[in-house]
Design brief:
globular; disordered N terminus; two-stranded antiparallel sheet; 62% helix; mainly alpha
Length: 212
């Protein structure tokens, strides 16, 4: 009987997780244009703006990080290793969610800034996490919040690894950081042309009060 109860609880938990994934927004079909992304998911703009105001990382940089890490997939995790080509093994890391945050650093974020209800599968918490992490990189490694390439290197390697230059022996990480920087620049240029749409879309927002 106990085995049946445990099996039922496990099945219920899996069903709940599956239901949460099904309710999450689908990844934007056009991820090359930040205006189109925010038109499809305007609340994402609100979350990224809140993070920018709290921590200082520009909206475009936050969204470039998320595109690089998860392609805007809310529940994505690193694929499992396969033994003999088909036997599932462990995942290479505990990364998950929009920001691909690892368990230990996500725990630090929840303790310091996010709270116990923060979820890696929610854009609000993912953008806030990126802002928090980059503010820490600025504090610990002296990286400007307007230098997305080096912020991403520290995001991937940690502040200690960044200071040691561990990324120099990792061409794939350097390429990813370069891609993030280029995407951040494009996103910023695009956002400059459309941001007023998202600042002034609510009935109580108008004129100089937009975005406040």
């Amino acid at each position: 009987m106990r085995r049946l109860i445990r099996a039922g609880l496990a099945a219920g938990a899996l069903g709940l997780l599956g239901g949460c994934a099904a309710l999450a927004p689908s990844p934007p079909p056009d991820q090359s244009n930040l205006c189109e992304i925010f038109r499809e998911q305007p609340r994402w703009y609100d979350h990224a703006r809140d993070s920018q105001e709290r921590w200082g990382t520009p909206i475009a940089t936050q969204m470039a990080f998320i595109q690089q890490e998860s392609s805007f997939q809310s529940h994505v995790r690193p694929p499992r290793k396969r033994y003999l080509g088909f036997i599932p093994g462990p995942r290479p890391s505990s990364a998950r969610g929009y920001a691909q945050a690892l368990d230990p650093v996500w725990g630090e974020y929840r303790d310091e800034a996010g709270g116990t209800l923060a979820r890696r599968s929610h854009m609000k918490h993912a953008t806030d996490f990126i802002g928090w992490y980059n503010a820490r990189s600025q504090r610990q490694a002296g990286i400007s919040l307007h230098n997305p390439e080096h912020l991403y290197l520290a995001y991937h390697e940690g502040a200690g690894g960044y200071r040691r230059g561990s990324y120099r022996g990792k061409p794939a990480v350097q390429r990813a950081a370069s891609q993030v920087a280029a995407r951040s620049s494009r996103y910023q240029s695009q956002l400059s042309s459309c941001e007023a749409e998202f600042q002034c879309r609510r009935f109580y927002q108008f004129g100089p009060f937009c975005g406040t």
